[in-house]
């Protein structure tokens, strides 16, 4: 990197290191459409969408070289069932019934992929009706199950992905999904896991999105504090049940065409409909721009658990630990794992800053290669954001009540290492 570029990049990341992120009101519900690949940079996305937490749509040009768009779609833009059966017929997949409400979601079952495709074909032939209901294949970890398949390449704009970087490192889970469903299938009102960002690319078909900026969901809660299952339901007009609904803004509406990618900001609640037979690729991800929102979400979740079982606080010796266990069962993470999450992310960036990567390592699709591709100053930005959240976590009273002896290195030592690495990198 030459001196002028370094100076410019330093100013760029310094400006945004102290930026705050919150709800963003879109004038007239407008959502930017990014047309050209060659004229839209990662810095543009970082500045205009990640930091201000602002949705956007990427044109189909951003996905036109994906294997799934070439092979999973027929000449007339429909799902290529024959090809999909040939590649994935023996897989077992999660399928939700869109016609049934179970608590605040749709019940799921595991089905052989070939059985689901048989159902889908019959559903289409029967004019989109079935005694089995409207079944939607959701949250399929296809990339993890079939890593050798040429399906897609994650666009550089979404490559700073701490969630998948961490869960890949511990080989437990991932947040990369395939969705497949007939016209009429839908996803009820929700915000994404950990209040993460998400991106969703249509391989074929069309979707309609109803988006509410972060904070607007408060006006949509009923008198008991519960969010609606369906934000289009007539019952929301009943003020005795939803007393603040008339104070909410209308949703931002997006119709997403085949090949397009929608970027959903952190903490934005949404509801999604398939307007046609549709296949999509979806990722959830967290990075330095929204990790503080994830931390706030975890604190809110723990507080909700503590309120729920407050009556057992005195007679239960390990009440604080039980609260953590319940929170993890509900959200998928507790405070100690959140510490380990931050540690893995930080140590990967420190390693790149201190040791760099050789050409062979850069050629491989690894988290450290992605860090190096985004540049040293992005790694420093990530470390600065990690320091802020880790400092807050370390000072948190609920965290300090846990047995922290198993954490290695201890939080104080990790913080010291992070700050030293930042200082050295900026010399």
TrEMBL record:
What Gene3D superfamilies does the annotation carry? Answer: Cupin (2.60.120.650)
Q: Which domain of life is it from?
A: Eukaryota
Reactions that this protein is recorded to catalyse: L-lysyl-[protein] + 2-oxoglutarate + O2 = 4-hydroxy-L-lysyl-[protein] + succinate + CO2
A GO term (biological process) for this protein? positive regulation of translational termination
Per the UniProt record, one Pfam family is: Cupin_8
Give the required cofactors.
Answer: Fe(2+)
- Assigned GO CC terms: cytoplasm; nucleus
What GO molecular function terms would the record report? 2-oxoglutarate-dependent dioxygenase activity; catalytic activity, acting on a protein; metal ion binding; sequence-specific DNA binding
Provide this UniProt record's keywords sorted from A to Z: Iron, Metal-binding, Oxidoreductase
Domain named JmjC: residues: 143-302
Database matches in PANTHER family = 2-OXOGLUTARATE AND IRON-DEPENDENT OXYGENASE JMJD4 (PTHR12480:SF6), ARGININE DEMETHYLASE AND LYSYL-HYDROXYLASE JMJD (PTHR12480)
Q: Give the family this protein belongs to, as stated in its UniProt record.
A: Belongs to the JMJD6 family.
Identify this protein by name: 2-oxoglutarate and iron-dependent oxygenase JMJD4
Organism, as annotated: Cochlearius cochlearius (Boat-billed heron)
Task: Quote the gene name from the UniProt entry.
Answer: Jmjd4
